[in-house]
Amino acid sequence: MRVCLAPMLSYQQFPLGFSVKRIYIARDPKNEDRKAIIMFRRLASTSASWATIPLRLAMGVIFIAHGAGKVLGSFGGPGLRAFASFPAPFPFMRPAWLWMGAAALSEFIGGILILLGLLTRLGAFLIACTMLTAMIGVHWKNGFFLNPTTPGIEYTVALLGGALSLLISGGGPASVDRFISRRR
What is the pTM of this model? Predict the structure, then answer.
């Protein structure tokens, strides 16, 4: 077994007069690699239920379409440059272009991941964060029901519920996650 002593902090004198001493920890690179593989397999683990397949396909198509409109300008969408210039839903989200760009990419990439069943939980997490932000920051003031002029939170609640369902269950048996999480 190979053990490395890796310094976490070096001795430095800071302007305010305090110093940090060097701290050594013992680490085993082989053990860390094994832990990373175990963590990745847990992220990719999935349930044996076939019920996730229709949900995954529907959510994937919806978010690829919405994300493609925001990122690529497809389907009459604004495109990334225009979408990133929109104001952020909350005042603490500065710079706004960064948060709006992250939301657009989260929808597009999250939709692709969910549709493929590749790291489904990660894709579902990206979409859940985006839907929660859209629900509270954009649609909450319009009430619950989805109206043509003032869209309420009805649609975002449904999409958030689907994303949370996939976050809990994973991609299901017909997914790349199932192949990844199998022990060899």
Answer: 0.77
